[in-house]
Amino acid sequence: MSERTTGTAIAGLGMTEMGKVYGKTATQFAVEAITAAAADAGLSLADIDGLLVNPGVKNDTDLRLQSSLQMRDTRLLATIQGFGSSAGQMVQYASMAIEAGMADVVACVYADAPLKEGKRSSDAYPGQARAMVGTASLPFAAGLKAAPERYAVAARRHMETYGTTSEQLGAVAVAARQWATMNPMAQMREPMTLEDHHASRMIADPLRLLDCCLVSNGAVAIIVTSADRAAGLKQPPVHVWGWGQAHPGYVQHRDSEFGLVTGAAKSGPDALKMAGIGIDEVDLRQLYDCFTFTTLVTLEDYGFCAKGEGGEFVASGALAPGGSHPTNTGGGELSSFYMWGMTPLSEAIIQARGQGGERQVDRHDVVMVSGNGGVLDFHSTLILSPHQKGR
Amino acid sequence: MALAAVIRDDHSAPFFEASAEGRLLLRYSPSQDTWSDPAALVCATTQADDLQWREAAGTGHLVSWTIKPGRRRDDVVTPDTVIGIVELDEGPWLTLQFPDAAQADLAVGRAVRVGFIQPEDSEHLPVGYLA
Fold first, then answer.
1. Residue A247: which domain range?
2. Last residue of a domain, one of A191, A223, A255
3. In chain A, at which end, N or C, are there fewer CB atoms within 10 A of the end residue's CB?
4. Could you give the number of structural domains in chain A?
5. A154 in a structural domain
6. Over the stretch B2-44, which tens digit does the pLDDT of each residue have?
7. Residue A338 catalytic?
8. Position with higher pLDDT, A56 vs A370
9. Do A143 and B108 touch (CB under 8 A)?
10. Per-residue exposure over A25-37, b if at least 16 CB sit within 10 Å of its own CB, e if not
11. Which residue of B65, B103, B127 is in closest CB contact with A153?
């Protein structure tokens, strides 16, 4: 990794209303979020000369968002699709472009509108639509279609290998809900118990309804710029200290670590090395939690506990308010809202700035953010801080 | 949940010709003496590009599984669906539906035999049976 000069920082955050918000397209949500992010930073849309667009599962928006924003002479423009790892990837590509002098102010946005009024959430993501043609279709034909059953197979393997239990997965959900009760933007703010988790209906054994994330309409945008420029803007800068990506490439073959080890095991240490810190120096964790199991296995792979001990770790109350390892302090995708990697990233920015209100964590000098896409296939990591690196 | 119908393409035609005869084919690299799953375009372990179809034993063991609960709608009861990852003796993994498996019988390492079922308007598809 080459020596970086002043580095980059996140200077703006824009979040639309999220959840069961109808009547807007993904593009309309995206424009609203970017406009809000620019205003949050104290910039105008005309200051933005780079745009990275991450459409969600519905794939309803793309780099043509430039036209919707009436942007001209854009110097960096792309659709980014790394599924749940996209938000972290966008910050990385934006930072590299800024440091290379390719752009000065880059807006990164995720937007999706899968929920339709009068339709159930489960209809929003009916599983990967593909023609059942050829041998590549065999897993789908067998019934492994949507995300819950695919993650269920991963979770079951972890449970059988390490003794992880449904109760331990439930502890992840309960901790997330405890945080969500303090987040005005969270979709699910009613208190929840382990008993509620166990009583929720089975979606795909071993995953129950309360092991699964929400489905949300909305958008989140951020503004990335140089640390020097961010220092003169409206909000406290959130500095980008380090990053990593790791995409394990699980092959359908003997020795595959699917369900046991994820890309976090490589991406996390790479990001920490770039940041020049150790895992013990991380104050806060904002982890991609499409399912409770994802949180648990990411904690193991980042090194917050030993491999196979994630169940005991989360059941200890470490993640919850007052716990030793505050995690997903906005309620995460499980209880707050589902904006892919922008869910953990937005909460990381809020906490790093010290703007978490009732849920603000005292120690917020170093925040670790994960993004996870596919079925544990794609991973990105960010290390963020309110302090400039090395100062 | 019933198996969904699958139709063949050029790549899969030999696989489904064999499945109709109750034989399981996998992709095999003669230069590397390695086996890959039926959808592989290059070798899963060496990325060799000389894959060809070769008959496998059709036996393996259970790696992991999920159970999708059955549902009752308008007095029509859909049974639970067991879907498992099977590691074949040759090495490749197959994701298979287990038509007869009970939850209590599922365990990592359980021996599995591959059989075939033909859904309506479909090729014969592989399924798993606990041995």
1. 144-213+241-391
2. A223
3. C
4. 2
5. yes
6. 899 999 999 999 999 999 999 999 999 999 999 999 999 999 9
7. yes
8. A370
9. no
10. ebbbbbbbbbbbb
11. B65
